[in-house]
Write a structure and sequence with these properties.
single chain, 143 residues, mainly alpha, globular
């Protein structure tokens, strides 16, 4: 069941995130989770958990907790490419390249109706890895 006040808080958090206001986004999404629990939901929506985990890792540098929330979200809604993308970003932040590569393989092996969306997520994960790895290798090259 949708808790309207929680959804409003989540949407406001997403607007903050898109505006680059990560601290405010984190607070609003955390409030959405708390509202859902207060109104009797047994588990908050997966997208709330996923974006909360992403922001914990990026903004507060609580990568272990961020991974926990993102994994829980993907467990709830494994078909949702946004949640898997968030997990990929947090895995990258955690330095878990093997796990990220496994996630990329999983995305590239999917052949359901969301194949195009998964390709977009795979491209994003590849871009994130490239942006993270290339500067490290070019810095190591003798100039």
């Amino acid at each position: 069941m949708l808790v309207h006040s929680a959804e409003e808080s989540f949407q406001a958090g997403m607007q903050c995130l898109m505006s680059g206001k990560k601290t405010e986004a984190l607070a609003r999404i955390e409030a959405a989770i708390q509202l859902e629990l207060r109104f009797g939901e047994s588990r908050p929506q997966a997208r709330y958990l996923s974006f909360y985990g992403l922001l914990l890792a990026l903004e507060r540098r609580q990568v272990r907790e961020g991974l926990r929330f993102c994994r829980e979200a993907v467990t709830q809604e494994s078909y949702n490419p946004d949640l898997r993308c968030n997990l990929g970003r947090v895995l990258l932040r955690a330095g878990r390249r093997k796990e990220l590569a496994s996630l990329q393989e999983l995305l590239s092996d999917d052949e359901d109706e969301e194949e195009r969306t998964d390709d977009i997520v795979l491209d994003e994960a590849t871009r994130i890895m490239r942006d993270w790895l290339v500067p490290r290798f070019t810095q190591a090259e003798p100039g």
